[in-house]
C-alpha cells in the first residue's frame, strides 16, 4: 500500500500538521510524519514537541502516494531550505503524484517547483510575493489544481485535510470523517 508523508521541520505550525495527520488517519490513509533536519523530535512554532515516525534519510520515496508540507515559521522556510526534500518533491510532482502544502509552505516549498504548466494555489496572506509567474495565487481557503492541493492557513487545516482525503480516497470517505468530527 502506498504511504502519505507529512514533513516536519523546526518551527512547523502545529495545528496544520496535527489536524491533517488526524483527519487522514481517521480516513484510513497510511500516513507517516517525517522529520527534516536530522533529529526525529521536532518542535513546532508554538513550542510543542512532536516525535516524527521517521527521518527524511529513512524515507522510501517509491512508496509515496502524497507529500504534505505544513506551514508555520520558520518551519516552512526550513522545509524549503532542504535540497534533498525539494528534489524529492520535484520527482514526485513530475511523476504525477499528489503534493499538498498549507500556509507559508505553498510559497516557500511548492513555490520552488518547476511546474509543467501554470498552477493555481493559495497561501497565507503576505507570502504571494514568493511565487514566480508560473503560479496564479487565489484568496480561497483551499485550492485544488490537478494533483496539487494548497491551503491558506491554520483556520483551514481540517478542510485542507478533508480535501486531501477526498483526493486520495473518495468524497464519501471524506464526508464520513467530517460527520464523525461533527463538521
How would you briefly describe this protein structure?
The protein is α/β, with parallel strands linked by helices and 183 residues long. The chain has helices at residues 14-26, 75-80, 83-94, 105-108, 157-168, 171-180, and strands at 3-8, 31-35, 41-43, 49-51, 54-55, 64-69, 98-102, 119-122, 135-138, 142-145, 148-151.
Strand content: 25-35%
Shape: globular
Q: Give the name of the CATH superfamily.
A: Class I glutamine amidotransferase (GATase) domain
Read across the widest sheet, the strand sequence of neighbours is: 5-2-1-6-7-11-10
Question: How confident is the prediction overall: mean pLDDT?
Answer: 96
Largest sheet: 7 strands, mixed
Calculate Rg over CA atoms.
Answer: 15 Å
The CATH class is Alpha Beta
Stretches where pLDDT falls below 50 for ≥5 residues? none
Would you kindly provide a written description of the structure presented here, covering whatever features stand out?
This protein is α/β, with parallel strands linked by helices. The protein has a single domain (3-180), classed as Class I glutamine amidotransferase (GATase) domain (Rossmann fold). The chain contains six helices and eleven strands. The strands form three sheets. It has a seven-stranded mixed sheet, with helices on both faces. A two-stranded antiparallel ribbon has the order 3-4. Strands 8-9 form a two-stranded parallel sheet. The radius of gyration is 15 Å and the shape is globular.
Amino acid at each position: 500500500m502506498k504511504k502519505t508523508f507529512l514533513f516536519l521541520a523546526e518551527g512547523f505550525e502545529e495545528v496544520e500538521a496535527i489536524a491533517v495527520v488526524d483527519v487522514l488517519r481517521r480516513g484510513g490513509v497510511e500516513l507517516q510524519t517525517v522529520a527534516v533536519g536530522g533529529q526525529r523530535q521536532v518542535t513546532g512554532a508554538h513550542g510543542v514537541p512532536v516525535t516524527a515516525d521517521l527521518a527524511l534519510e529513512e524515507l522510501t520515496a517509491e512508496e509515496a502516494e502524497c507529500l504534505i508540507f505544513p506551514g508555520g515559521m520558520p518551519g516552512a522556510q526550513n522545509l524549503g531550505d532542504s535540497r534533498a526534500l525539494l528534489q524529492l518533491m520535484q520527482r514526485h510532482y513530475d511523476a504525477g503524484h499528489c503534493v499538498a502544502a498549507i500556509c507559508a509552505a505553498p510559497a516557500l516549498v511548492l513555490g520552488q517547483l518547476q511546474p509543467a504548466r501554470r498552477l493555481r494555489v493559495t497561501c497565507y496572506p503576505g507570502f504571494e510575493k514568493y511565487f514566480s509567474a508560473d503560479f496564479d495565487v487565489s484568496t480561497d481557503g483551499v485550492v485544488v489544481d490537478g494533483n496539487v492541493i494548497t491551503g491558506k492557513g491554520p483556520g483551514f487545516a481540517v478542510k485542507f485535510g478533508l480535501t486531501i482525503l477526498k483526493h486520495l480516497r473518495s468524497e464519501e470517505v471524506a464526508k464520513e470523517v467530517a460527520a464523525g468530527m461533527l463538521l
